[in-house]
Specification:
It contains 9 helices and 8 strands. By secondary structure, the protein is of the alpha/beta class. Strands 1-2-4-3-5-6-7-8 form an 8-stranded mixed beta sheet, with helices on both faces. Keywords: Hydrolase. This is Alpha/beta hydrolase family protein.
């Protein structure tokens, strides 16, 4: 079923996949940073899998970037809430949750904390428990390590990222930060570290770089399922799990953690990017967890 989610004067194209029989629950899909279209294979997997278990799946295209800047997490959370409202109009009073991949796994708990009356559960894949800046420091350093670069290169990477972050915070002048980028750009590893060759003319362009997810996690009161690929090169997995456990200490239903063998950042085997590479372990764990928390069909 083709629908739309209307947000901030923008109509976001939306696809709703409904069960053939009774509806036990619903799921709204939130996006990874580089996977903003509803046709992404991880989202399509949910739309193919879950209606057979009585779960409706709503996928929508992420709000467009403005002037090349990423969509702020607060806007992504607001869009998620608007999408839940759309889904509820079609499934009625059943539990509706949010599924978020990577960046979407920051936006989903933000939305759940804002509207605990609307969000009944969270399923988060490759969600970071540290800020975007810290996560990128970890992930880019890991790219260098996995490609055989040593301590000197890692040290230079640390310096250039620190200079870039300081400029974006307004703590360092552009000329000094750009000089650090210019030096790093001569290194063979520069294409691996996701830094712009030319810094923006004005600081403040990465609004969420120091977003602290721990207080956000602490406001989540619904059940949470966390998936992490055991070889993920972008997420500090142990630190992220520890952040959730700190934030939810004493919770009656602490987050469920599932480490996916043979998976990296996506829940796929062999770093695949297609439906047939989706991990059977991920599929089975997702179905089992939802089945235990949703009403019988």
């Amino acid at each position: 079923m083709e629908l739309s989610v209307d947000v901030a004067g923008t109509r976001l194209p939306t696809t709703l996949s409904l069960p053939a029989g009774p509806v036990r629950g619903g799921l709204v899909v939130l996006h990874a940073a580089e996977a903003g279209h509803r046709s992404h294979f991880c989202y399509e997997h949910l739309a193919r899998l879950l209606p057979g278990a009585g779960v409706a799946v709503l996928r929508f295209d992420r709000r467009p970037r403005v002037d090349g800047h990423d969509v702020p997490l607060a806007d992504q959370a607001a869009d998620a809430i608007a999408a839940v409202d759309v889904l509820r109009g079609h499934v009625g009073d059943v539990p509706v949750g949010l599924w978020g991949l990577s960046q979407g796994a920051w936006a989903a708990p933000l939305a759940a904390g804002l509207r605990p009356d609307l969000v009944a559960f969270l399923v988060l894949v490759s969600g970071s428990g540290v800020s975007p800046a810290v996560q990128m420091r970890y992930g880019t350093a890991e790219q260098l390590r996995r490609n055989g670069y040593g301590d000197d290169d890692l040290a230079e990477l640390g310096r250039v990222r620190a200079a870039t972050e300081a400029y974006l915070r307004g703590e360092l002048d552009r000329a000094t930060a750009q000089a650090a980028v210019d030096r790093a750009a001569a290194r063979p590893w520069f294409p691996l570290v996701y830094l712009p060759r030319a810094l923006p003319d004005q600081p403040g362009t990465w609004r969420d770089m120091d977003f602290d997810p721990v207080p956000v996690f602490a406001r989540v009161s619904c059940p949470v399922l966390l998936f992490y690929g055991t070889t993920d090169a972008w997420i500090p997995i142990d630190d992220s799990i520890a952040a959730w456990r700190r934030a939810t200490a004493g919770a009656a239903d602490p987050p469920t953690v599932c480490r996916l063998d043979g998976c990296d950042h996506y829940p796929t085997l062999g770093e695949g990017t297609s439906l047939d590479s989706i991990s059977p372990q991920y599929t089975a764990a997702l179905l089992s967890w939802l089945d235990a928390r949703l009403p019988a069909g």
